[in-house]
Design a protein that fits this description.
The chain is an alpha/beta fold. The chain has one domain: Peroxisomal Thiolase, Chain A, domain 1 (3-Layer(aba) Sandwich), CATH 3.40.47.10. 31% of the residues lie in helices and 15% in strands. The protein contains 13 helices and 12 strands. Strands 5-12-11-6-7-9 form a 6-stranded mixed β-sheet, sandwiched between helices. Helix 9 crosses helix 10. The radius of gyration is 22 Å and the shape is globular. 45% of the residues are buried.
Amino acid sequence: LDRLAALLDSRTDLVGPVPEARRRDAGLGPGADLAEAALLDRIDAFDHTFFGLSAREARQMDPQQRMLLELTCQAVWDAGYPLSALRGSRTAVVFGTGRETYAELADPADPPLVTGLLPASQAGRVAHLLDLRGAALTVDTACSSSLVAVHEACLKLTSGDADWAVTGGVRLLSDPPVTAPPGSESIVSPGGRSRSFDAAADGTGLGEGGAVLLLKPLDRAERDGDHIHAVVLGGAVNHDGARSNGFAAPSARAQEELLLQAWRAAGVHPHSLGLIEAHGTGTRLGDPIEFEALTAAFGRRTERTGYCVLSSVKSNIGHLDSAAGAAGLVKAVVALREGRRYASAHFTEPNPLLDTAGSALRLSDATEPWDASAQRRAGVSAFGLTGTNAHLVLEQAPSEPRVPAPGGPLPLLVPLSARGEDALRRHAGRLAAH
């Protein structure tokens, strides 16, 4: 989270050329015209022995499954728990998923197992290897998948079907993005960058990444003395129905209704919201429709103008497709934690198709401090290409009681453990750096 906060403060992005190793893995020569994107390094790296897997079994798994295993462990550790604390528990696993392309790169002489490619294995594999015994589900609603997954995970907790929930999503591009030919109807930016709500927006940039969150009912988290990053107050999911101009076109009316439903479910008035983490694809059609819907929904409940900052993490890390909603959620968590209302990267001038006059939303070209005189609240949106929309409302974490530091410069013993000497040294190094 600290590194994400630094990236957001810098108002820069992680977009760059496709690494040469990724070109080779995809069988693409130096002459291939590949679009720039925000790609991860070494998506092939995976400590299979940690999870008790053979090298061959790990190789036959979609890298997205491997990454979800790693991120789930990191989420549990970040919460201050060992993995053993969740073994055998009623922990729901709900991940957003999308199209997989790993099979296209696989060695025909050693093809992946069916379970290595099944989207359902993303949740099932985590539940199996970590012995989590709640529901294990994958959700595919295209670009809104991971935010819908978080909403579903919250429902599992509020209904009493689970005591914990692991949720989120990842997106890896096994096949590097190819530059769209001139004159095509691609929504991908020729330059690879999402300039959300900006006059210079020319499409969405692509990216890789993911996020996994560990959820728990607030009363139990407070009782157990957990470190809480933020609180999900509530949310909503709906569909465009037949209200858009086409199956893959967004609907302002549906998005407006979604926001009103989410605010009712969360029990909040929109005048208490200081930040909207938008879907913000940077497309000429999507951004104006999203802004129109936000303005209309806020306008139904308040006459205040220009008080709620609007931005999108896609301007920093690109569009993560099925993992985009989870990425936006984590950005909102960082904003609540840091007391910063982050501006979108590259934003200089509003898209002329946005009717900003009289809107409660404000587009800013500079990050600003977030007043702590009232409880900070933020909304997060994600809209799927096939019409499924999601919005969640977050609130800053409750204040934690201050624990007095031990008196005097006494040495403290910090026991560490790992499943190997190299891992132990890395663990100690991370702790020392912290």
